[in-house]
Amino acid sequence: MDILKFIQEIKKHLKLSFDEVDGWFGKDRKTLDYQPSNGGWTVRQILEHIYLTNFYLLILIEKGSKKTLRNSGGPDLDVEIRDYVFDREKFEEIGKYGAFEWIRPGHMEPKGAMELHEIRSLISIQHQQCLIYLERMKNGEGLLCKTTMTVNGLGKINVYEYIYFLSLHTKRHLTQMKNNESERIRTAGFDI
């Protein structure tokens, strides 16, 4: 796989995901606070969860990027770039809402303690952080460090794949927010 094309693909996916998330902050209060009939999270809670998950994923991404940059250069990078194959099929499930069962850690559960404007600002900063990491590892260095990802049995994934995972996780919850909004509109009739 052409690693430079993969990095560009990740950047594009991040932009689309984060731009769409940003649009949800402008929704009306009824949409943001609608409790779906399945007892799931409100849009407001989902936005907080996206921020929290990104926060913890970015800790791992930062550690991995530092490690890769310390270890970059030399023949190992050339070999990794030459031999790298991205298993797209394995990752695509992450972006599909309801595709698999996974119990998230408690520290990623929304607590309702943050204001929407604060969450919005922090998510925007997280998007920029992802782009900075990709720029720092623009020559394939992100392949040099792998960390275990337990979600859906992904196993050892590299730093680029962690960033892609973060974007796919966001996409997953975009579907959940759309489902909430659709249900609210259906149950409210035209009282939107």
Describe what you observe in this structure.
The protein is mostly helical and 192 residues long. The chain has one domain. 62% of the residues lie in helices and 4% in strands. Strands 1-2 form a two-stranded antiparallel ribbon. The longest helix has 30 residues.
Give the number of domains: 1
Residues in helices, as a percent range:
55-70%
User: Count the strands?
Assistant: 2
Beta-strand content: under 5%
Average pLDDT confidence is 91
Largest sheet: 2 strands, antiparallel
Strand order of the largest sheet: 1-2
Rg over C-alpha atoms, rounded to the nearest angstrom: 18 Å
The secondary structure category is mainly alpha
Number of continuous helical runs = 7
User: What is the terminal separation in angstroms?
Assistant: 47 Å
Cα shape? elongated
Q: What are the secondary-structure elements, in order, as H or E?
A: HHHHHHEEH
As residue ranges, the low-confidence spans are none
InterPro entries: DinB-like, DinB/YfiT-like
Protein name: DinB-like domain-containing protein
Pfam families: DinB_2
Domain DinB-like: 31-177
Structure, briefly:
This protein has 192 residues and is mainly α. It contains 7 helices and 2 strands. It has a two-stranded antiparallel sheet with strand order 1-2.
What labels describe this entry?
single chain; 192 residues; mainly alpha; two-stranded antiparallel ribbon
